[in-house]
Amino acid sequence: MSQALPVKQAEIRYGEVSTILSEKVMIPINCDHCRQDTDISIETLKSKQGILCEHCSNVRTFSTTEMRLMRMLLAQAGYHFAL
Ligand SMILES: [Zn+2]
């Protein structure tokens, strides 16, 4: 491209690295029943199947709202994943 970049686009802040997470990345999910964390992969969370607690075998569902919240928090930390 020979055109000059518009000022807005030129203001890229270096040092802010974003990472695209793999679907295999494990996210600790806190159990409603025993309050312990179980690591669940993003792939499993996205599949909307029940989340089985490895400590007390309690099964819970991961809601769309929780998914959105998780995405937002991870994005703030510089981590992203596709829905
Ligand atoms: Zn549990």
Structure, briefly:
The chain has about 80 residues and is of the alpha+beta class.
Task: Chart the SSEs and their pairings.
Elements: H1 7-10, E1 19-20, E2 26-30, E3 37-41, H2 42-46, E4 51-52, E5 59-60, H3 64-76, E6 79-80
Parallel strand pairs: 1-6
Antiparallel strand pairs: 2-3, 4-5
Bound molecules: zinc ion.
The site of zinc ion has 8 residues, from loops.
Described by its quaternary structure, the protein is: single chain
Strand order of the largest sheet: 1-6
Q: What are the distinct ligands in this entry?
A: zinc ion
Average residue-wise pLDDT:
84
How many domains, in number, for the residues?
1
Helix vs. strand class: alpha+beta
Separate helix tally:
3
Name the shape in a single word.
elongated
Hey, roughly how much beta strand do the residues contain?
15-25%
Q: Would you count the extended β strands for me?
A: 6
Helical fraction equals 25-40%
Low confidence ranges = none
Give a written overview of the molecule.
The chain is an alpha+beta fold and 83 residues long. The protein has one domain. 27% of the residues lie in helices and 22% in strands. It contains 3 helices and 6 strands. The strands form 3 sheets. It has a two-stranded parallel sheet. The protein is elongated, with a radius of gyration of 18 Å. The chain binds zinc ion.
